[in-house]
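Q: I'm building a small set of examples for a reading group on sequence design. Run inverse folding on the following structure and report the sequence directly after it, with nothing in between.
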């Protein structure tokens, strides 16, 4: 099979490309990525020259380029990871989120219709459900929880989900959607909580915790997410939506303290800063449907996953050093300088 993976030079997309190439070496992976600030070709460099892999730099909003690629590559499956993915950036500048996350998704699905692709898989997020209260640990997001978004990022992802389901109902496009909780692991861009805290701690820099640090996220090791997407895109019925999460809810402050403990750094590095606007309180996934329908279960515990992740950032400074010494420095100054 020919599988187009958009956003494959980003965090989860790249992990997915490695997962697929190892699990299904008979398939051919074609990565389409615009290489925005979040895309990093160095991540995929070891795959260059392999017969079952091709990288194409293109924008999913560029209709003509997408049409040419589909005509050449004749994909059986298209998996869409390409997105603007950071909530804080969406608060600063929503426009590009609407373009890539909504328009880009529709351009890909139009190409899927023209070329009769047998599966379009949309990689979505639990953030489309908005948040849950902190004092109701009995509540979880199911696939039937109403969409109720808080940030421009989550609103753009929810719009794409609605559009994806509309293409299924209106045109019969064979789509599936996965809505996963927060991921962590190798190759995550340092603007996100876990790599940001690891790298700041390594430099003995302040660790900026928003508000009181009591917001809760449901963390999943990235490889478990990749395994879920692989199962869904190959086995699920068209039109189905699956939540993906491993019942691993943690408060931000507890994650930060754990990272400090593993790096043997003092808690005095923790600095409480002004809260994020519209900050979602708690995310928590009910993964019963994917377990019952497809037999998916997470394999990596948080304790094991976080230790592997910390070790990877310690051993792969050459991956993140060029990032933090480039334009990311200006971003960091703008977002955290006077917070
Ligand atoms: P990321 O920001 O690390 O990577 C995004 C990739 O998309 C980058 O390589 C970037 O260059 C590329 N891209 C951006 N705009 C593009 C465009 N117009 N055309 C082509 N390529 C473009 O993001 P990520 O964390 O890997 O997330 C991947 C997907 O998973 C996103 O759709 C995100 O909404 C979803 N998701 C992420 C998480 C998480 O915790 N990170 C959780 C659930 C769902
Ligand atoms: P993030 O990694 O941006 O993921 P998301 O907002 O999509 O869940 O943030 C995870 C949590 O960590 C979120 O509650 C915001 C918080 N956070 C901080 O406290 N400090 C930071 O510097 C960042 C980036 C996030």
């Amino acid at each position: 099979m020919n599988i187009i993976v958009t956003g494959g030079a980003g965090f989860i997309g790249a992990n997915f490309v490695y997962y697929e190439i190892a699990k299904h070496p008979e398939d051919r992976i074609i990565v389409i990525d615009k290489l925005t600030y979040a895309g990093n070709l160095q991540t995929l460099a070891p795959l260059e020259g392999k017969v079952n892999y091709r990288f194409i730099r293109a924008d999913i909003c560029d209709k003509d380029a997408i049409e040419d690629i589909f005509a050449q590559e004749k994909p059986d499956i298209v998996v869409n990871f390409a997105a603007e993915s950071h909530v804080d950036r969406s608060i600063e500048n929503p426009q590009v989120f609407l373009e890539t996350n909504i328009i880009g998704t529709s351009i890909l699905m139009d190409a899927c219709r023209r070329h009769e692709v047998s599966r379009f898989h949309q990689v979505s997020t639990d953030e489309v459900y908005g948040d849950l209260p902190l004092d109701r640990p009995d509540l979880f997001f199911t696939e039937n929880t109403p969409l109720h978004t808080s940030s421009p990022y989550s609103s753009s992802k929810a719009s794409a989900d609605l559009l994806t389901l509309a293409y299924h109902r209106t045109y019969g496009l064979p789509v599936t959607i996965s809505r996963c909780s927060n991921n962590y692991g190798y190759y995550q861009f340092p603007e996100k909580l876990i790599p940001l805290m690891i790298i700041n701690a390594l430099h003995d820099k302040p660790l900026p915790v928003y508000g009181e640090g009591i917001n809760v996220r449901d963390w999943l090791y990235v490889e478990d997410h990749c395994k879920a997407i692989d199962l869904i895109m190959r086995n699920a019925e068209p039109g189905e939506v699956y939540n993906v999460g491993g019942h691993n809810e943690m408060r931000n402050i507890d994650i930060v303290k754990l990272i400090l403990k593993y790096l043997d750094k003092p808690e005095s590095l923790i600095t409480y800063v002004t809260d994020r606007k519209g900050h979602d309180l708690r995310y928590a996934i009910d993964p019963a449907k994917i377990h019952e329908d497809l037999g998916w279960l997470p394999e990596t515990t948080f304790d094991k996953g976080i230790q592997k992740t910390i070790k990877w950032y310690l051993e792969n400074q050459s991956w993140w050093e060029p990032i933090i010494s480039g334009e990311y420095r200006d971003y960091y100054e703008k977002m955290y300088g006077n917070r």
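The chain has 13 helices and 13 strands.
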